[in-house]
Amino acid sequence: MKSLKVFVVSDSVGETGEQVVKAVIAQFRPNFENTVIRRFPHIENDDHIKNIVEIAKAQDALIVYTLAEEKMRQKIHHSCQQENILSIDLLGPIIQLFQEKIDEPPLEEAGLVHKLDDDYFRKIEAVEFAVKYDDGRDPRGLLLADVVLVGVSRTSKTPLSQYLAHKRYKVANVPLVPEINPPEELFLVDPKKCFGLVISPEKLNIIRKERLIALGLNDDAIYAKQERIKQEIAHFYKVVERIGCSVLDVTNKAVEETANDIIERIEQNK
Amino acid sequence: MKSLKVFVVSDSVGETGEQVVKAVIAQFRPNFENTVIRRFPHIENDDHIKNIVEIAKAQDALIVYTLAEEKMRQKIHHSCQQENILSIDLLGPIIQLFQEKIDEPPLEEAGLVHKLDDDYFRKIEAVEFAVKYDDGRDPRGLLLADVVLVGVSRTSKTPLSQYLAHKRYKVANVPLVPEINPPEELFLVDPKKCFGLVISPEKLNIIRKERLIALGLNDDAIYAKQERIKQEIAHFYKVVERIGCSVLDVTNKAVEETANDIIERIEQNK
After folding, report:
1. Record's HAMAP family (chains A, B) (predicted)?
2. Which CATH fold topology does B118-268 show?
3. Which residues partner with B62 through β-bridges?
4. Residue B154 annotated as lining a ligand binding site
5. SS3 (DSSP) at B22
6. Alpha carbons A236 and A245: distance in angstroms, whole number
7. Using CB atoms within 10 A of its CB, is residue A149 exposed (0-12), middle (13-18) or buried (19+)?
8. B103 and chain A: CB distance < 8 Å anywhere?
9. ipTM of the predicted structure?
10. Across chain A, what does the average pLDDT equal?
11. B61 at interface of A, judged by CB pairs closer than 8 A
């Protein structure tokens, strides 16, 4: 297998470029075998570009670049051509297309997506909110949240809350356990904002067994027992019915997929 | 100002496409004025494409697509051409380039970036870790973490921890307050893993005042007093010196930028 080395060159942090490169590499090598992605952030002048192209040449790397200034894009394009390096201009063609459509010139400023504007602070606030009101820590959060997640353990409540926070939703989550009465606030929340997360008993059993083994415990500890799981899921449905909210099955689903589903439902209800 | 409507069409959730579109729109309208981005996830057949192209036509939208199958990419390309809709194939050209480079055929499977593989579970684990060990909740986390953040309040410790978690780093953070002795574990951590976060006293004062006003409190409450801030920062430097770790100034920096800086330092020390 040939080694694959990709340089992501950006005038900002290189976040966007890296995400695209990862999506493409996954199409060839889903486990990123024999593959290196290297980011070059804050690339702002000709010297930077010259250096990177030299390193790429020496290491036989591809270059994917996200540069706001057209002059810089042309510069790296020509340098790569001269040195016979395969390269891709990620933003340039889309910037041109958008310009054509709306008939406005681009600002050509680096790092505009990472601006410290209202939107940025909304995201930061949402991330902090989700940490603060994770795992039923403070039931007052339920009434302040845009989205409330309830579920048995191991249904990805925490990562899902964080993912939604990055999309600017304030999320609180509450674990449901038969022994503990759910907070009264849960039944005051608009059911359209609330989502019950469920997972198949078989899958839950596997996850818990793995967890127990990872903790060095005997895998037939009560936590993993089938009976117990059934009881928890029955309790879950009882609570969810009282709330009157939708239920999402997260079995074998990535957090991104469930989050997307929730966002669609929330936006439809607006 | 012309309205700008962009459809992001994906065979998976449309995450990557949306991020690129946002980066491009920010180059024209940093506050996304008069702009709509609409995601069409899980687009898997010709009928889906036909429908979307019709809606795009009716709404005068641009289409940006991320589709793994070449057949599907051709289909949407031709449909858009027929209907005179401006469109961009985001992944296609890069897939071709990579194929040329490594001489392997692409898998053409949707959603490979969202696979429930080891890497995915590492991310989930890191996100849960950061929530669990946020705000000095449990000092045992400090010895298990890949990265430890310490700082005075309002230095973005929580969102920074979460951002790094998405990059697979396990992060614990500890607030430093003169009244509370930092946990002893902090001084057992490898200083190369640890980062002190500092912010200019002026900026900290502004942030705190805003916070007090948002909470409906008088803005000259002790929390915001200049003297107090100086005292906190002096205490911060005393602790950081004892740890022997680097200090990063986060004043006016986006979380992404600071995170990038930390990742570079961590990777260099490996």
Report:
1. PDRP
2. Rossmann fold (3.40.50)
3. B6
4. yes
5. helix
6. 12
7. buried
8. yes
9. 0.79
10. 92
11. no
Residue A162 and residue A130 in contact, taking contact as beta carbons nearer than 8 Å: yes
Q: Tokens at residue B214, please?
A: 């948002």
Yes or no: is domain A4-114 CATH 2.30.29? Answer: no
- Kindly state the greatest CA–CA separation across chain B: 70
List, for residues B176-221, the tens digit of each pLDDT value: 999 999 999 999 999 999 999 999 988 888 887 777 777 777 666 6
Q: Which residue has the tokens 């990777």?
A: B267
Whose tokens are 């491009």? That residue is B24
Separation between Cα atoms, residue B46 and residue B72, nearest integer Å:
7
CA B63 to CA B111: how far, in whole Å?
19
Chain B CB contacts of A29 under 8 Å are 104
**In Å, how far is A176's CA from the nearest CA of chain B?**
18
Q: Which residue of B has its CA nearest to A117?
A: B31
Note whether B162 contacts A102, CB cutoff 8 Å.
no
Structural contact between residues B260 and B171, judged by C-beta atoms closer than 8 angstroms? no
Q: Can B4-114 and B118-268 be said to share one CATH topology?
A: yes
pLDDT, tens digit, 9 for 90 and up, residues B5-24: 999 999 998 989 999 999 99
- Enumerate the domain spans of chain A: 4-114, 118-268
Q: Which of A86, A112, A123 sits opposite B26 (nearest CB)?
A: A112
CB contact under 8 A, B119 and A24: no
A208-225: pLDDT as tens digits: 777 777 777 766 665 557
pLDDT of residue B92: 97
